[in-house]
From TrEMBL:
It comes from the Bacteria. Pfam families: Na_Ca_ex. InterPro entries: Alkaline_pH_Ca-Antiporter, NaCa_Exmemb. Residues 43-197, 248-388 form the Sodium/calcium exchanger membrane region domain. This is Calcium:proton antiporter. GO terms for cellular component: plasma membrane. Keywords: Membrane, Transmembrane, Transmembrane helix. The chain crosses the membrane at residues 16-34, 40-59, 79-99, 111-132, 144-161, 173-195, 243-261, 281-299, 311-335, 347-363, 370-389. GO terms for molecular function: potassium:proton antiporter activity; sodium:proton antiporter activity. The keyword Membrane applies. It is found in: Membrane.
Length: 390
């Protein structure tokens, strides 16, 4: 590595100093800073500082996960990206669970927010922008169907079934039911990983194969599209470094996210409990924090006419969120005795079922178009509207 390359790499990691400094400041002074949030300006400042720092760190986590992806290839690359983001989500939910006493629906709201943001917001925006640039786009239909075949039962078992069980009086699960759901979630997600990484890896590599068969395809696109393809193939402004380097830096950014998650839980919890903000807003904020980096990656992939990578990102996010978050929060609930309500309200159940049905229709054909993107964005708008006007 030349001195110039080393200097560029060091400068690119300058955010780590800010993230570490912010983490140290809140560890030392956070109790005083967050002890009294009655001043709206101070509350907004603390929330904005923490939100911005966590988001910046999360973007760097995803950057280094993406660099690892370039070294390891698909489908491992997307899997690393997804697991890095979901680990942030699970840790933030756990932190908020321990801080807030009156929000047993946080995990449910977060998972529902992820499903709505991804399957409607991210999918809609990705398909719309990709179709506006490239017309119709192709992907591996078998891979999308594999995702949905696991997402649908996990979503319904986790977010709908608790409304209809009789062992508990509210939208919770008994200890036996929670244990079953933990095992079922782990079994389904583990089976999917076996398919994705061992037995049927080809289901998730449509665009890679297409570009390998036609290496000049990128040059036939518009110049800006060709440059995006180059980015997706690893021709980043900064080439990937050694695997151990990116693994260490990924952890260096991830640890502050974990530590700051407990701090941002305080202004979020204060806003919900004291300012009477919608309870679902806490889950929405967590989902936006953890999904923004993946949303950027999915949109870039679609604009580069690499829809398969975008499909892997957004469907993988939903699957990992439900498949990993449900066991984690239920295990925390069983261990600590803190109640967790997973069952959705009737309105949200209708929106969830509609979203799943539309997703099945969207990914039932091997090519996508503008109309599908518009439909998903309208459903996302309905979700946001119902947060503030249930």
């Amino acid at each position: 590595m030349s001195k110039a390359d080393l200097g560029d790499r060091v400068r690119s990691e300058a955010p780590l100093l800010f993230v570490l400094a912010t983490t140290a400041a809140f560890l030392v002074f956070g109790k005083g800073w967050l002890g009294d949030l009655s001043d709206p300006l101070w509350l907004a400042l603390m929330f904005a500082w923490l939100f911005g720092t966590i988001l910046w760190a999360a973007l760097k986590v995803v950057h280094h996960a993406d660099m690892l992806a370039e070294r390891l290839g698909e489908p491992y690359g997307t899997l690393i990206l997804t697991l890095a983001v979901i680990s942030i989500e699970v840790l933030m939910i756990a932190s908020l669970m321990f801080v807030g006493d009156n929000n047993p629906t946080l995990a449910r709201d977060t998972m529902f927010a992820v499903v709505m943001i991804v399957l409607n917001g991210m999918v809609g925006l990705t398909l719309l922008l990709g179709a506006l640039r490239h017309g119709e786009q192709s992907y591996n239909l078998q891979g999308a169907n594999a995702y949905l075949s696991v997402i649908i039962p996990l979503a319904l078992l986790s977010l709908v079934l608790p409304d209809f069980t009789q062992s508990t009086p509210v939208r919770t699960l008994s200890g036996f039911q929670a244990t079953f759901l933990i095992l079922a979630s782990v079994a389904l997600y583990g089976s999917f990983l076996l398919i994705q990484t061992v037995r049927h890896r080809g289901y998730f590599r449509y665009d890679d194969a297409a570009l390998e068969a036609a290496p000049d395809a990128a040059t036939e696109m518009a110049p800006d599209a060709a440059s995006d393809v180059a980015l997706e193939h690893g021709h980043h402004a900064q080439e990937p470094g050694p695997v151990p380097l990116h693994a260490v830096l990924l952890l260096a950014y991830l640890v502050p996210v974990v530590l700051l998650a407990k701090k941002i839980a305080l202004p979020i919890d204060y806003g919900i409990e004291t300012l009477s903000l919608p309870a679902a807003l806490g889950g929405f904020v967590v989902a936006v924090l953890v999904l923004t980096p993946e949303a950027v990656g999915a949109v870039r992939s679609a604009l580069a006419n690499r829809l398969q990578r975008a499909v892997n990102i957004f469907l993988g996010s939903v699957l990992a969120t439900i498949g990993l978050t449900v066991p984690a929060v239920l295990a925390i609930s069983l261990a600590t005795g803190k109640p967790v309500e997973l069952g959705l309200d009737d309105t949200d159940i209708l929106l969830l079922v509609t979203t799943l049905l539309v997703a099945v229709l969207t990914f039932s054909a091997p090519r996508t178009n503008v109309l599908q993107g518009v439909v998903h964005l309208i459903l996302f708008g309905a979700y946001v509207m119902l947060i503030f006007a249930p």
